[in-house]
TrEMBL record:
Entry protein name: pyridoxal kinase
Pyridoxamine kinase/Phosphomethylpyrimidine kinase domain mapped to chain residues: 16-254
Role, per record: Catalyzes the phosphorylation of hydroxymethylpyrimidine phosphate (HMP-P) to HMP-PP, and of HMP to HMP-P.
One GO biological process term: thiamine biosynthetic process
Pfam families the record matches: Phos_pyr_kin (PF08543)
Organism: Corynebacterium glucuronolyticum
UniProt GO cellular component terms: cytosol
Domain of life: Bacteria
Keyword Manganese: no
Keywords: ATP-binding, Kinase, Magnesium, Metal-binding, Nucleotide-binding, Transferase
C-alpha cells in the first residue's frame, strides 16, 4: 500500500447525503483519495415545507479553527475544492484561509443561490464569490444557471451557448472552465464543456432520463478535484469525473426528496 493523495474540501453539509460535503468526501474516497474537510454552512431541508432549505452559516471563528486544524495537520495538501459557502462573511473567511496556503489546484463549484435564501443576500453572496473566491480558482465548474450568471448572458439554450459562456468566464482570469450542461440543454446527451483558454473539449454521455438528480454537480467537481490531487491532467480528470457521474446516475439511490440522488460507489 502506498500513501494516498490528499484533497481538501471547504463546503456545506447537506444532511440527506445527496449534496455538499457528504458527497465530496464519498467521491474522494471512491477515487482513492484521502479527504480532509471544513464545514462552511449547514443545510437541513424541511420535509414539512416542500423540502425548503433551512440554511445555517458556520460562524467565521469556527471556520478559521477548522481550516487551521486541517492545514496544520496536512501541510502538504495542494488541492482543494470549494463548494457552497453561503454568505459574504463565510466567503471572506474562507478566502483569507485559503490565501494563507500554497495550492496547485483550487476547484471552485460556484454554488450561487440556494433556495430559502433572501434574494438580496444571494446577490451579496454572488458578488463576494466573484470578488474573493473566483480569483483564487484554477478550475471553476458552473452549471447552466451559474454559467449564465457568471458570463452575464441572457440565456443559454444550446451546447454552443454554453461554450460561449465558458469562454467568457475564462476571460475573468480562470485557467479552466468546466461548464455543466446536464439534462437542461436539448439533445440526447448530457454535455459538459471544458475551456482551457485555447480550445473547447466536449464531454458527453447519454442522458439517463430527463429527470434531474441531486448531487451530480457536486460529485463531478469533487471527482475532478480528486483526480487533480492524484496528478491527472484536467482533461483526464474531467473524463473520469463524467464517467463516475454517469454510472452514479444510472445506479441512483431513490429518495423521498423531490430528486433521487447519485450513488458515488457505483
Ligand atoms: O447542489 C448544491 C448544494 C451544495 N452544497 C450544499 C447544498 C446544495 C444544494 O442543496 O445544500 C450544502
Amino acid at each position: 500500500m502506498s500513501t494516498p493523495s490528499l484533497a481538501y474540501v471547504v463546503a456545506g453539509s447537506e444532511a440527506t447525503g445527496g449534496a455538499g460535503f457528504q458527497v465530496d468526501l464519498k467521491t474522494f474516497q471512491q477515487l482513492g483519495v484521502y479527504g480532509i474537510g471544513t464545514l462552511s454552512c449547514i443545510v437541513a431541508f424541511d420535509p414539512a415545507h416542500n423540502w425548503g432549505h433551512r440554511f445555517h452559516p458556520v460562524p467565521p471563528t469556527l471556520i478559521d479553527e477548522q481550516m487551521e486544524a486541517a492545514l496544520a495537520t496536512h501541510p502538504t495538501v495542494r488541492t482543494v475544492k470549494v463548494g457552497m459557502l453561503g454568505t459574504p462573511d463565510t466567503i471572506d473567511t474562507v478566502a483569507r484561509g485559503l490565501a494563507n496556503h500554497q495550492w496547485d489546484n483550487v476547484v471552485v463549484d460556484p454554488v450561487l443561490i440556494c433556495k430559502g435564501q433572501e434574494p438580496g443576500a444571494a446577490l451579496d453572496t454572488d458578488n463576494a464569490l466573484r470578488e474573493k473566491i473566483l480569483p483564487l480558482a484554477t478550475v471553476v465548474t458552473p452549471n447552466v444557471f451559474e454559467s449564465k450568471t457568471l458570463a452575464g448572458m441572457d440565456s443559454i439554450d444550446s451546447v454552443e451557448d454554453l461554450e460561449e459562456a465558458a469562454r467568457k468566464i475564462g476571460d475573468l482570469g480562470i485557467k479552466y472552465v468546466l461548464a455543466k450542461g446536464g439534462v437542461e440543454l436539448p439533445g440526447d446527451d448530457a454535455v459538459d464543456v471544458l475551456w482551457d483558454g485555447e480550445k473547447i473539449t466536449r464531454f458527453a454521455t447519454p442522458k439517463v432520463g430527463e429527470q434531474r438528480v441531486s448531487g451530480a454537480g457536486c460529485t463531478l467537481a469533487a471527482a475532478v478535484t480528486a483526480e487533480l490531487a492524484k496528478g491527472a491532467s484536467i482533461y483526464s480528470a474531467a473524463k473520469t469525473a463524467k464517467d463516475l457521474v454517469y454510472r452514479g446516475i444510472q445506479n441512483r439511490v431513490p429518495a423521498d426528496t423531490p430528486f433521487d440522488t447519485v450513488w458515488q460507489g457505483a
